[in-house]
TrEMBL record:
Superkingdom field: Bacteria
Protein name, UniProt field: Aminotransferase class III-fold pyridoxal phosphate-dependent enzyme
InterPro entries xrefs: Aminotrans_3 (IPR005814), PyrdxlP-dep_Trfase (IPR015424), PyrdxlP-dep_Trfase_major (IPR015421), PyrdxlP-dep_Trfase_small (IPR015422)
Organism encoding this protein: Aquibium pacificus
Cofactor(s) the protein requires to work: pyridoxal 5'-phosphate
UniProt similarity note: Belongs to the class-III pyridoxal-phosphate-dependent aminotransferase family.
Keywords associated with the record: Aminotransferase, Pyridoxal phosphate, Transferase
Organism classification: Bacteria, Pseudomonadati, Pseudomonadota, Alphaproteobacteria, Hyphomicrobiales
Molecular-function GO terms, alphabetical: transaminase activity
Length: 420
């Protein structure tokens, strides 16, 4: 599969060689790197991408969940065009940020007050700083294998570049060990930060009992519960928190909510968020030149109010749920030890016999099989993440899902034979 890939992509290869002279590894986002060289995409329309060698792909990656609206959504393009015409660097409160904040609060009522950032990473960094400031405590609980941004990886990278906090580690979905760890950290614990479904960590849903325990135990020790919904906020009209019926103290958002522009936000209980109110003495500073950039504000507002209605979210997730079920049925029929995990429109294919329940379960996955699935699907015209992540976008319809299921059906017997 790798030889066929090399032969089919000389222009992507040449571009990578040039880029390596300028950027270490030829890229500026580690996640996009893979051997022998990554593809360069030249353009996208709807749910289709075109690469430098002229191949087209159905985009099942959806920019790692930020591309929910697809490429060149006309409503969002129109909003961005108007914002550009209106002047892009106003150096003041902008014309649309309050309306955008209101649209977000309408969807996620636990975000009584919120603030914008440029990325999900920044949103998490600020939420953790806020939790420490508001509680006057130092410790931050995170889960092994969690990813909360480029400077918050635990310990997904062998050499993490972490923002220095006094971290307490626990195991995701391990109810009793984590209950004990929260009680042990007790009066020193500022917050627990968790994704209600581990996204980058392999689309591993949080067990509702585990997440309810986090809510109860943090409250009991006076620590804050921070839900990182950068990825999972798309899993229900009110995010995964409303599907679960759990109200966190703070929530962080990112990815698609900026309509495809660079975006992050954090928010939560009004009395906690008020620590950022500059009219209060001793308030926390929060700066950022592009926090309220007019392109993000316009694209995000249009996306959330005009395109991503609650019914559109429900439809997208139902489509994802059906796709996941169909692929799993095909894989199991072929006797292939591969499984697709996830919820709704977010999923991850794993070379495992059963769905992973904890990050540790991924240790048994064969990386060569992950690679083969990735390159086979590319050859068939489907773009996914090398680690197996797929995130549906609004333009993906029945035809694209049927085509993917057909490709998996054709490939599954060979995958099964190789795994056996
Ligand atoms: N939190 C989670 C759960 C994420 O998946 C990501 C991005 N993959 C981030 C935070 C960081 O967001 P950004 O890339 O916008 O900094």
């Amino acid at each position: 599969a790798v030889e066929a890939y090399r032969a089919a992509n000389p222009e992507s290869h040449a571009r990578h060689e040039r880029a390596r002279q300028l950027m270490p590894g030829g890229n500026t986002r580690t996640v996009l790197y893979y051997t022998p060289f990554p593809l360069t995409m030249i353009s996208g329309t709807g749910c289709r991408l075109k690469d430098a060698d002229g191949h087209t792909y159905v985009d099942f990656l959806g920019e790692f969940t930020a591309g929910l609206f697809g490429h060149s959504d006309p409503v969002i393009a129109e909003a961005i065009g108007q914002a550009v015409a209106n002047g892009v660097n106003l150096g003041s409160h902008g014309p649309q940020e309050a309306a955008f904040a209101e649209a977000i609060k309408d969807r996620f009522p636990s975000m009584e007050l919120l603030r914008f950032t440029n990325s999900g990473t920044e949103a998490n960094v600020l939420a953790l700083a806020l939790a420490k400031h508001a509680t006057g405590r130092g410790k931050v609980m995170v889960f092994e294998g969690a990813y909360h941004g480029g400077t918050l990886t635990f310990p997904a990278s062998e050499v993490p570049v972490n923002v220095p906090h006094d971290y307490v580690f626990s195991r995701f979905n391990d109810v009793e060990a984590t209950r004990q760890a929260i009680r042990d950290a007790g009066p020193d614990l500022a917050c627990v930060i968790v994704e209600p479904m581990m996204g980058s960590g392999g689309c591993i849903p949080g067990d509702p009992a585990f997440l309810r325990m986090l809510r109860e135990e943090t409250e009991a020790v006076g620590a804050l519960l921070v839900f990182d919904e950068v990825m999972t906020s798309r899993l229900g009209p009110g995010g995964l928190q409303s599907e679960l019926g759990i109200r966190p103290d703070l929530t962080t958002l990112g990815k698609y909510i900026g309509g495809g522009m660079s975006f992050g936000a954090f928010g939560g209980r009004a009395e906690i968020m008020s620590h950022f109110d500059p009219s209060r003495s001793g308030s926390l500073p929060h700066a950022g030149t592009f926090n309220n950039n007019v392109l993000t504000m316009a694209a995000g507002l249009a996306g959330l109010t005009k395109r991503l209605t609650p019914s559109a979210i429900l439809e997208l997730n139902a489509r994802g749920e059906a796709l996941r079920r169909r692929i799993n049925a095909v894989l199991s029929e072929a006797g292939a030890d591969l499984v697709v995990s996830g919820i709704g429109s977010l999923m991850n294919i794993h070379p495992l016999g059963t769905e992973p329940k904890r990050p540790g379960d991924l240790a048994g996955a064969d990386q060569r099989m992950r690679d083969l699935v990735f390159f086979d699907l590319l050859e068939d015209g489907f773009y996914t993440a090398r680690r197996g992540l797929m995130a549906l976008s609004l333009p993906i319809g029945d035809a694209e899902c049927d085509a993917l299921v057909a490709a998996v059906t054709r490939r599954a017997p060979r995958w099964a034979a190789l795994l056996g």
